[in-house]
Amino acid sequence: MNTILVTGGAGFIGSTFVLLTRQQGLARVVNLDLLTYAGNLMNLEALSGDPDHLFTVGDIGDRPLVQAMLERYRPRAVVNFAAESHVDRSIDGPEDFIQTNVVGTFHLLEECRRYWQALPAAQRERFRLLHVSTDEVYGSLAPDAPAFTENHPYAPNSPYSASKAASDHLVRAYHHTHGLPTITTNCSNNYGPRQFPEKLIPLLIVNGCKGAPLPIYGDGLNVRDWLYVEDHCQALHTVLDRGRVGEVYNIGGNCERSNLEIVRTVCRLLDQLDPAPARTPHEALITFVKDRPGHDRRYAIDAGKIQRELGWRPRETFATGLNQTIRWYLDNPCWLEAVQNGSYRDWIERHYGTNSAGPAATPTAPVRS
Q1: Known catalytic residue: 160?
Q2: Which residues, listed in sequence order, are joined to residue 217 by a DSSP beta bridge?
Q3: Domain range for 236
Q4: Number of independent structural domains in the chain
Q5: Is residue 219 part of a domain?
Q6: Which of 82, 228, 247, 289 could cross-link 8 (Cys pair, CB 3.0–4.6 Å)?
Q7: For the segment 182-192, what is each residue's pLDDT rounded down to a tens digit?
Q8: Catalytic residue among 33, 59, 136, 296
Q9: pTM for the predicted model, two decimal places
């Protein structure tokens, strides 16, 4: 029973969780991912040949597949990362977000409930379903408002955050109605290695290294709390091991920064780590563009509950985490090139026969938060 089923385990946060789990020898990992545009098996290359990492291409909405995997591998926990997770894409095409984040979560819950109810008593007591969500479900904060706590009312403002809010409510309902032992976490903006370059920090690194514009929505003063991805994944293991069933835990990095502060910090580090005299300083590349619809002004996480109850705190400061992140992208040009030109998707098609991968990111697109 020392097996964890991870859904969405080839994406940015999911793959980091899988790598950490295996590198620390915490459990065997059964990994289910549909390999859409942001799911990348190159993220998991370090586990090549690991007999305790078992990967399957598939959808959490494919109930016969999920049922078969649960019955075959008998996991002690399911950790659900599977989600469409990009605000801009949800504005352009919300249906995929509803299908994956709402309908897919419903199907996963149904199969987990069926599996859990059939377990022997001791294994039922130990089983957990950990649902990984976002601070965006809470909506937007005024500049001087207190940070989000677990009791903050939901007020999602984009199709993405609305779909995640719906999935959170389903998870809560399955615990209170059926007794399914669920825990939900709501995290702040993650950053770190292997993040698809449509998101703010990797996009800045990619464009900055190429001398391309660094476009910023609106006035650049939208504020987010930033969390290094490995700190997030350590927190998830802490919650999985010691969190109380039926509870919600906010996970944040105690690091509020405006988008403009982020861009300027990345520019300063690129000036040091990737100097290019012809286009230094990198700040000269900053360009302000029209704001996106419904752009939330501020998110901030109060992580006091997980600190008090479970003793978790982030290990990385923003300075150390960002330095590691930039160095990783500079040291891994093959990963970045494969993501940008789409060749990793051709590899997936040859090996897995899936047509699910979407278009590659455009490296000069407006900065996302």
Answers
A1: yes
A2: 289
A3: 3-192+227-255+299-317+344-352
A4: 1
A5: no
A6: 82
A7: 999 999 999 99
A8: 136
A9: 0.91
332 part of a folded domain: no
The span from the CA of 65 to the CA of 60, in Å, is: 8
**Which helix (H) or strand (E) element contains residue 186?**
strand 182-187
Rounded-to-integer distance, Cα 142 and Cα 243, Å: 30
- Residue 48 resides in a domain: yes
Is 302 designated active site? no
Please confirm, yes or no, whether 96 is among the known catalytic residues.
no
DSSP annotation of 301:
B
Catalytic residue among 160, 174, 191, 329: 160
| Torsions phi, psi for 298 (to 5 deg) | -150, 140
Give the Cα separation of 214 and 263 in Å (integer).
8
Q: Measured in whole angstroms, how far is the alpha carbon of residue 52 from the centre of its chain?
A: 23
162 HSE (CA, 13 A, CB side): 12
pLDDT digits (tens, 9 = 90+) for 76-134: 999 999 998 778 888 888 999 999 999 999 999 999 999 999 999 999 999 999 999 99
pLDDT at residue 356, rounded to an integer:
37
Cβ–Cβ < 8 Å for 68, 58: no
Complete DSSP assignment for 119-144: S-HHHHHH-EEEEEEEGGGG----TT
Residue 366 lies in a domain: no
Structure token pair of residue 221: 């003063």
